[in-house]
Amino acid sequence: MNRNRFSRREFIGLSAAAAGASLGLKTIVLDPDPLWALPQTMAASDRVRFGMIGIGMQGSGLLGNSIELPGVECVAACDLYDGRHTLAREIVRPNLPTTRRYLELLENKEIDCIVAAVPDHWHKQVVVDAVNAGKDIYIEKPMSHSAEDGVEMVAAAKKTGRIVQVGSQRVSSVICAKARELVAQGALGDLMLVEGSLGRNDPTGAWEYPPPTDLSPQTLDWDTWQGTVPKRQFDPLIFARWRCWKEYGTGVAGDLLVHLVSGMQYVLGINEAPTQAMAMGGILRWKDGRNMPDVHCTLFKYGEVPVYLRLSLGTEMPETYRFQGSKGILELTEFNLTYTPQAGVDTGPSYYASGFPKAMRDEYFKKWHQEHDAVPGKEPALGGVSYRSASWDDLKPHLWNFFQAVRTRKPVVEDAVFGHHAALACHMANQSYFRKGAVTWDEGSKTIKS
């Protein structure tokens, strides 16, 4: 996460807060209660020792945040690119052991768990190998590269009993927790519709990353990096921009949609795949050889409720949810939650009565007011409320929840099943896009069908 992008999100959050204040909403600041930031005395036996697999853009952030948590220690790090061995030592300590072979970390008895940030096409193998080796693992989102991979990962997690936490940090944020609480209390009434959107408008946001300048077949194990994908000649752009190609990544669905889906699942208290998905989109701006769309809009069906999620790499749009119900609307952004209640009843005589003859209309109006007008001084007030707190993009609370689970063996929220269901929505969105039609999830065969 670069500093400029974070500053822009902060600005958007502050602007939204100012807008809420101008509407006269009651604003409440939520304490993020960062237990991980409090000074703690930790016995050596209670320390959690982890191994880091993948130290690129996201992995370096996970590594840096993890070692700042109390009672957490990095034992060793792995990456197929040698330059990231140097980076890992710069982040942790000059004598940190590093390797190109992640199996060495899984064999290391000093390592309790793994934090992994590798390309999507490596997720399944790393997770399955880790849990089979007796290691708990934090794996970056989306959990899987395909529906089939996800099914295998869930089975491995259940068989071994190891903790798997997927890295969509919305489920550990205070803002989303408050939204979940309001929904559970019935603030929405009957859920009618969920909308979500997120957009970027810059080359970095569209994964046009600059490859490391010293990248070569000597500094990178290119053959291993490609995994089981049909082999290609060494290409620094594919290494740096793998999200652009379906062979290695899952596009905007796996990068951005998964955040919207996982946050939605958490807020609504659901843990299931959508029953249906219909997607449209295309490569409208970034015509650089990629085969994944840069605009992707998907209409999902969860039970009877439609969920419409929109992604774009051509227009900057803050990540936003609107949960629409019969009793009001919850609007959720990175720093803010606003609840606007709605009575859902007529506040005046029906305008349909304008088609009545005068005598009938006057009688209708009289009766309506007798039955519905409030007692003077006791008129009902529908006051909205706004909440503000720390960014839902903060990595530390989510990492802390993982390391605490490793320490206490308490289950995590975003386990393999939850992560699988969130990833399935992404895979269904991609499959609908490529198949050019609606798709469904068949739980019986555990496959996506047209």
Task: Map the helices and strands.
Blueprint: H1 3-22, E1 26-29, E2 48-53, H2 57-66, E3 72-78, H3 83-91, E4 98-99, H4 103-107, E5 113-116, H5 123-132, E6 136-140, H6 147-160, E7 164-167, H7 174-184, E8 191-199, H8 222-226, H9 236-240, H10 251-268, E9 276-282, E10 295-302, E11 305-312, E12 317-325, E13 328-332, E14 336-341, H11 358-372, E15 385-388, H12 395-408, H13 416-435, E16 439-442, E17 447-449
Parallel strand pairs: 1-15, 2-3, 2-5, 3-4, 5-6, 6-7, 8-11
Antiparallel strand pairs: 8-12, 9-10, 9-16, 10-11, 12-13, 13-14, 14-15, 16-17
Helix pairs in contact: 2-12, 5-6, 6-13, 7-10, 10-13
Explained architecture:
There is one protein chain. The chain is of the alpha/beta class and 450 residues long. The chain is built from 13 helices and 17 strands. It has two domains: 3-33 and 174-343 and 382-393 and 417-449, Dihydrodipicolinate Reductase, domain 2 (2-Layer Sandwich), CATH 3.30.360.10; 35-170, NAD(P)-binding Rossmann-like Domain (Rossmann fold), CATH 3.40.50. The chain has helices at 3-22, 57-66, 83-91, 103-107, 123-132, 147-160, 174-184, 222-226, 236-240, 251-268, 358-372, 395-408, 416-435, and strands spanning 26-29, 48-53, 72-78, 98-99, 113-116, 136-140, 164-167, 191-199, 276-282, 295-302, 305-312, 317-325, 328-332, 336-341, 385-388, 439-442, 447-449. The strands form two sheets. Strands 1-15-14-13-12-8-11-10-9-16-17 form an eleven-stranded mixed β-sheet, with helices on both faces. A six-stranded parallel β-sheet has the order 4-3-2-5-6-7, with helices on both faces. The relative contact order is 0.17.
